Every structure is written in structure tokens, then in C-alpha cells.
């Protein structure tokens, strides 16, 4: 789905151009789940906006769904393949009801009305909003608005959805809700790039990419990152309670592949 090699990006800052991404090389296959993390200002948002065709690479190569992003004519097409769910659930709705919001993208594609109505109802059912199809969008909770944003991505038949810290403004129940929906989509074949700074969400991801100062610092599995790398301590991360217990076990000689990452894993060990 994503192939980037030595990708660079610089943005105008006054009269000068400021380097934002420096030599990023990453491959994300179709159907993968990758968690992307890093401190504020490290370049995460610039990278995903480049993947989505909103930023134009300054150098290197980037292909998305087989389309070369160095060619201007491909950038609009990429937006259909790669969709974004933003951090703020109130900043991504255009319709007054969930039905109208999903209809907006389908109408722009010129879909037959009878087919469009059937598809809208299917999508609302899929994201758990069928009972609120005609509700005022302003009456939806933050989690419901994020579900609606996911529905709009599905309406455009996106092969990849980027969740840009989509749970950061939600309560714990809302976070679990959106994370669960994203996992359902992933299991059905959607490629997911999950941007987060939450340690528990990173620990549950099969693959983690860590950014710092516009560079890719790590790309691999979570167990190696948390137990066999100095990077979390170097970056000043506060380990989760599960990882803190795992490090105690590690010092007692437990092998790497048995160290826990999640609460269910720790519970099973106990």
C-alpha cells in the first residue's frame, strides 16, 4: 500500500524552507496494522499528510496504492485510496445528519441514488450508527462522531485508513469503541495506520514505527522495542504498568518472547 524510500519534505517558513522529513524509508503492505508514534513536532502529521497526497514530497520516492506521488495527476486519486480520521471529532463533518454526511462523498462520485441510499444504510449499520441516521450531528458524542468519520472513509471505499490520534479527545469508553472498530476493519482487510502516543495502544500493535526529529528511529515489533531497545528510555517514555512488571521478570531471567505487553497476557501468566 505504501512504499517510501529516502522520502524528504521541506515546508516554507517565512522566506526559508524548513526540513520536516529526512530520509524516511518505510513499506506498509496491504492489510497491515502499523502504529506510528513520536513526540509532538516529530513529523508524524507531515508524514501522514504526505501519504494522503496533501503534502508534496521534496525528494526521494513515494508510491501509494501503486501510484507515484511525485506525479501531480496522481495526488487526487490517492485521496480515495487513503483516508484520514482526524484528532478532533468536530472538525470533519459537513452534513447536518449522519445520513447526509456519508451521502456527501457518494454524491460527489455520481453514484446512482437508489444504490447510494442502500450503501449509506449499510455503512451506518457497519459503524453502529443506523439508529442515529437522521439525528442532528451536534447531538452525537465524540465517539459517535469518530464512528461517523470512519463511515465517510468507508463510503469512499478506502483501502487504507489513517487514524491520526483519533482517540486522544475521547473518554476511555470512546477510546475502546473506536479502537475496536478499527480492529474490526483491519481484520476485514483494511490497511490501518494508527497514530498514537498511548503506551497501551502501542503495546497492542503488531508493528510500531517511531519518529523523532523528522526521521524514522525504529520500525519493528513492540516486544523488541519495549524490552530490547534503549529507545523508550532515551525518549523519556513512561512505561505502562505491564511493561514495568515485565522488566522485573526480564531481570530475573525470563526470555524475551514470554514477557507481557498487555493486561490479558499478564493475567494469563499469573
Strand fraction equals: 15-25%
Q: What is the strand arrangement across the widest sheet?
A: 6-7-8-3-9-10
Query: Shape from CA axes?
Result: globular
Q: In terms of structural class, how would the helical and strand content be classed? A: alpha/beta
Mean pLDDT: 90
Helix and strand succession?
A: EEEHEEHEHHHEHEHEEHHHH
Radius of gyration: 20 Å
Overview of this protein structure:
The protein is α/β, with parallel strands linked by helices. The chain has a domain at 30-54 and 76-220: Rossmann fold (3-Layer(aba) Sandwich), CATH 3.40.50.300. Helices cover 38% and strands 23% of the residues. It contains 11 helices and 10 strands. It has helices at 44-51, 75-81, 98-108, 113-126, 142-155, 172-187, 199-203, 222-227, 231-234, 241-251, 263-269; strands at 2-13, 16-28, 33-37, 59-64, 67-68, 82-85, 160-164, 191-195, 208-212, 215-220. The strands form 2 sheets. Strands 6-7-8-3-9-10 form a 6-stranded mixed sheet, sandwiched between helices. Helix 6 (172-187) links the parallel strand 7 and strand 8 (191-195). Helix 3 (98-108) runs parallel beside helix 5 (142-155) and helix 4 (113-126) crosses helix 5. The longest helix has 16 residues, at 172-187. It is globular, with a radius of gyration of 20 Å. It is found in: Cell membrane. It comes from Paenibacillus borealis.
Amino acid at each position: 500500500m505504501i512504499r517510501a524510500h529516502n522520502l524528504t519534505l521541506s515546508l516554507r517558513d517565512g522566506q526559508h524552507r524548513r526540513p520536516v522529513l529526512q530520509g524516511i524509508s518505510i513499506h506498509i503492505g496491504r492489510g497491515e496494522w502499523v502504529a506510528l508514534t513520536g513526540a509532538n513536532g516529530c513529523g508524524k502529521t507531515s508524514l501522514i499528510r504526505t501519504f494522503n497526497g496533501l503534502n508534496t514530497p521534496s525528494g526521494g520516492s513515494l508510491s501509494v496504492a501503486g501510484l507515484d506521488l511525485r506525479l501531480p495527476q496522481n495526488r487526487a486519486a490517492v485521496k480515495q485510496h487513503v483516508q484520514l480520521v482526524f484528532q478532533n471529532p468536530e472538525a470533519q463533518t459537513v452534513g447536518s445528519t449522519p445520513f447526509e454526511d456519508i451521502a456527501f462523498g457518494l454524491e460527489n462520485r455520481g453514484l446512482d441514488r437508489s444504490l447510494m441510499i442502500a450503501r449509506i444504510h449499510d455503512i451506518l449499520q457497519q459503524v453502529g450508527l443506523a439508529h442515529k441516521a437522521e439525528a442532528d450531528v451536534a447531538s452525537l458524542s465524540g465517539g459517535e462522531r469518530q464512528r461517523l468519520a470512519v463511515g465517510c472513509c468507508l463510503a469512499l471505499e478506502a483501502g487504507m485508513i489513517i487514524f491520526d490520534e483519533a482517540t486522544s479527545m475521547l473518554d476511555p469508553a470512546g477510546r475502546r469503541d473506536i479502537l475496536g472498530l478499527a480492529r474490526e476493519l483491519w481484520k476485514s482487510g483494511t490497511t490501518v495506520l494508527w497514530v498514537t502516543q498511548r503506551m497501551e495502544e502501542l503495546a497492542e500493535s503488531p508493528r510500531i514505527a517511531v519518529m523523532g526529529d523528522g526521521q524514522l528511529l525504529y520500525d519493528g515489533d513492540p516486544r523488541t522495542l519495549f524490552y530490547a531497545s534503549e529507545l523508550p528510555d532515551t525518549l523519556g517514555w513512561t512505561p505502562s504498568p505491564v511493561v514495568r512488571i515485565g522488566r522485573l521478570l526480564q531481570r530475573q531471567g525470563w526470555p524475551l518472547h514470554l514477557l507481557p505487553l498487555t493486561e490479558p497476557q499478564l493475567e494469563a501468566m499469573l
